[in-house]
Amino acid sequence: MTLNHPILPQPDAPTLGAALRRVAASAPERPALIFKNQVTTFADLDRQIRACVTRFTVWGVRPGDRVAGLAFGHPLQLAALIALSEMGAIWVPLNFRLAPAEWQQVLHDCSPCCLLADDDHLEPARQLAQTQAIPLHPLNDLLHNDQTLVLEPDAPASDPHTPVLLVYTSGTTGKPKGAVHTVANLMANARAAIEAQRITPSDRVLTLLPLFHVGGLCIQTLPALLAGATVVLHPRFDANAFWHDLVQEHITLTLMVPAVMKAVIEHPAFQTTTLIHLRTIWAGSSVLPDALLQAWHDKGIPVCNVYGATETGPFSIALGPEHARSHMGSCGWPALGVEARLDQASPDGVGEVCLRGAAIVQRYWPDQPALDEHGWFHTGDLARIETDQSWRIVGRAKDMIISGGENIYPAEIEHILARHPAVQECAVVGLPDARWGEQVAAVVVFKPGMQADEADLLEKVKSELARYKHPRRLIIQTELPKTALGKVQKDVLIRQITARADTAAAPSANSPRSL
C-alpha cells in the first residue's frame, strides 16, 4: 500500500538543503527541533544552515573536503550535515564512545580538513586535532557569524551521487570502514523510512540514539525533518528524560535498541504513565527479546522492527505496526525501493541476506567497492523467508556454528533463553571442539538479584530444539562485551572464554563462572 503524505522528500531535490527548504517554505514557524527546551523552527533551521555554509566557507572548507565532528546529540550536527551537502563536502560524525586511538584511526583514514567538537569533548578533541595536525573549532562557533556576511555555496552540489556523509562501521570484526553515503542514498532511505513509519508533519519524534550512526540519524531523525515533523533531540539517553519528554512533548514516535528499551521498561514510570500520544515504537535490531516486545504490546503500543546496516541506509526491511503483534521476532518485508534475496540458501532455507537499492552505498572510503558486480550488498547476516514472504534474521554468517556437520543458528537459542524470567541478556557462540568441530556455548547475564540453575535455564531449549542445538557449556557473566550501539561482540566474547579456559581461578561473585 502506498501512503500519501503532505510532505515527502522529492527525488529531484539537488541537496538535502533544497528538500528542507521546501518544508520551511510551507511551514516556517513549525518546530523542527527541540533541544534542552529550546525550539528551532524550520525557518530557524534554514537560517542556521545558511550560517553554517558561511562559517565553513570562512574556515576554508571546499567541495570534496571532509569535516569531522565529535559531540553528543546536538542540533548543529544536523545543520552541519545539511550545510556541507550544499557545499559538496562531507560530514564525518565520530563515535564519542570510542577510545582516542580509534578516533585517530578514523581521522587518519579520511583526512578531514577540520574537526568540530561540543563543549563536552573539547579537551579530547584538542589532543586529537594536535595529533592529526588539523584545525579544531567549537561546534557552537558555526553560528558565530557576522550577521552582515551570509554566503551561499559557490557551486551547490547538484549531482545526486555527491558524497555527503561518511559513517564508519561499528567494527564488530576487523578494521572499521567508512561507508560513503550520497545525497541519493539519504533521500531514498528517507522516502522508505517515511512510507514505512507513516511519518507526517503532525508527528513528534523523540531521538534517543546517537547521531554518529545511521541508526540514530537516518531511521527517524533526518526522515522526520524532511517530512516536516518535529524532532525532540536528547544529547544522550537518559531514562528519566525519556519519560519526562514522552509526556510533556506529546511524543508519537521513537526508536530504541534492546538495551535502551530494557532501561525504559525497568523505570518506575513504565507502570504508572498513561501513553495517550505514543502510537508506535520502532526498534533498530535484528533480534529482539520477546519479553521486551510483549511488555509494550501489553500497554497497547506496537513495537515495529527495522533491519539494515551502516551501508544500507539503514532502512531496508521493516515490520509495520499492523504486523507487530502477529510477527514478533520478524523483520517484516523489504522497504520501499529495496530488493532483497537470499544467497546460497541451505536445505533448511537459511541464506545470506543480500540487498540492492538506491539507499545502499556503492563504496567505502576512499574507493573500495561495497557491492558485487550485480549491485548487491552482501550483509553477512543469515535469514529465512517465511511462507508469507516475511523475513526473519537468524544470525550472522560468521556466527553460525557448525557442530558435527549440522548448521546451528545462535539466534534460535538466544530467543528461547531470553524468555527465561531470570535472564537479563544472553549470547550463544561456538567454541572449538576436537570431536564435533564446534560446541555450542551459551553465555548468560542474570537480572540483578536473580539466579537459575542449568537444568532450569535449558529446559525450554531442550524441549523446543533438536538435541544437536543444545548448549554443551553454560557460562554466567556479569556483562557481555558490546559495541557502541549495543551489539554483542561475539569475537571478543569467544576470546574472553578461551582465555579463562587457560586458568583455573575459582569463580567469585564479581567474576564470570561456568556451571
Q: Keywords, please?
A:
515 residues; alpha/beta; 30% helix; globular; disordered C terminus
What does this entry look like structurally?
- By secondary structure, this protein is an alpha/beta fold.
- Helices cover 30% and strands 25% of the residues.
- The protein contains 14 helices and 27 strands.
- The strands form seven sheets. The protein has a nine-stranded mixed β-sheet with strand order 2-1-10-9-11-12-13-14-15, sandwiched between helices.
- Strand 24 and strand 25 form a beta hairpin.
- The relative contact order is 0.09.
Question: What topology emerges from the helices and strands here?
Answer:
Blueprint: H1 16-26, E1 31-35, E2 38-41, H2 42-58, E3 66-70, H3 75-87, E4 90-93, H4 100-110, E5 114-117, H5 122-132, E6 136-138, E7 163-168, E8 178-182, H6 183-197, E9 204-207, H7 214-226, E10 230-233, H8 239-248, E11 253-256, H9 258-266, H10 269-272, E12 280-283, H11 290-297, E13 303-307, E14 317-319, E15 333-334, E16 338-343, E17 350-357, E18 363-364, E19 368-369, E20 377-385, E21 391-396, E22 401-403, E23 406-408, H12 410-418, E24 423-433, E25 437-446, H13 454-464, E26 473-476, H14 490-501, E27 513-514
Parallel strand pairs: 1-10, 3-4, 3-5, 5-6, 9-10, 9-11, 11-12, 12-13, 25-26
Antiparallel strand pairs: 1-2, 7-8, 13-14, 14-15, 16-17, 17-20, 18-19, 20-21, 22-23, 24-25, 26-27
Helix pairs in contact: 1-2, 2-3, 4-5, 6-7
